[in-house]
Design brief:
mainly beta
Length: 235
């Protein structure tokens, strides 16, 4: 299996137009920050959103409450300032969202005139199923339930073991590791690759550095636990 601890950050509550307010409290004595979320999600896709610890990414935690596997989905955010002026947008898409399961992705936040990332006053977030793809390709066969994941903390690294309990070779494995603080994700990284039938593989991911607290010595972020979400496991 190929391991990638990626830091790219490239890498939906029901189908009506909802407005909710999410309050985000920063670390190190920052003032409480707020944004308004306008959510337009397809039916039976539940969504929660969070700002990561560096305040440059929007973490999107989705649940597929449909009774079928989604073949392709699209996520798009448009950002606005306090005067309702559009100040940026970002888009991503993904494949194979299993029925009854969670899926995690993220989008970049906008930048100000000095090119610094900012938390917008309002976010219009759209989460849609690609119905054309669904009608042509159909429901993908997934093996998300056939992966078992265990981990061990080793100082600045996390050793993760993933086992394919199925009797098929998995050509696509995507697992998201979420670092949780105060019951909310503050950082995500993904593990991707392939895994043969009955095989397991072990690799490491790094605990990110808290750059605001790091001067001469690197200081790792503070977190309470790690959650693993299988985005996809397919042949």
């Amino acid at each position: 299996m190929k391991w990638e601890d990626r830091n790219e950050k490239n890498l939906v509550l029901l189908g009506v137009f909802l407005i909710s307010f999410l309050c985000l409290t920063g670390c190190g004595g920052k003032e409480e920050q707020k944004y308004t979320l306008n959510l337009d999600a397809d039916e039976n896709i539940e969504v929660e959103t969070y700002i990561d610890y560096e305040e440059d990414d929007l973490i999107i935690y989705m649940t597929n409450n449909n009774d079928y596997n989604i073949g392709n989905y699209e996520v798009e955010a448009t950002y606005y300032d306090q005067d309702n002026n559009e100040i940026g947008n970002d888009f991503t898409s993904g494949f194979s969202f299993a029925s009854g399961k969670n899926c995690v992705t993220q989008l970049r936040l906008p930048r100000d005139e000095e090119y610094n990332y900012i938390i917008p006053a309002r976010i219009d977030l759209s989460v849609k199923i690609d119905q054309n793809y669904q009608s042509i390709v159909g429901e993908p066969e997934l093996y998300n339930d056939e992966l078992t994941i265990s981990y061990e903390k080793l100082g600045p690294e996390i050793e993760v073991t993933i086992k394919n309990e199925s009797n098929v070779d998995l050509s696509t494995v995507e697992v998201i590791a979420l670092f949780i603080k105060d019951k909310e994700p503050i950082y995500i990284t993904d593990i991707t690759g392939t895994l043969g039938a009955g095989e397991s593989d072990t690799g490491t991911i790094e605990v990110p550095i808290d750059w605001e607290k790091s001067a001469e010595d690197d200081v790792l972020i503070e977190y309470d636990s790690i959650e693993f979400v299988v985005n996809e496991a397919s042949e």
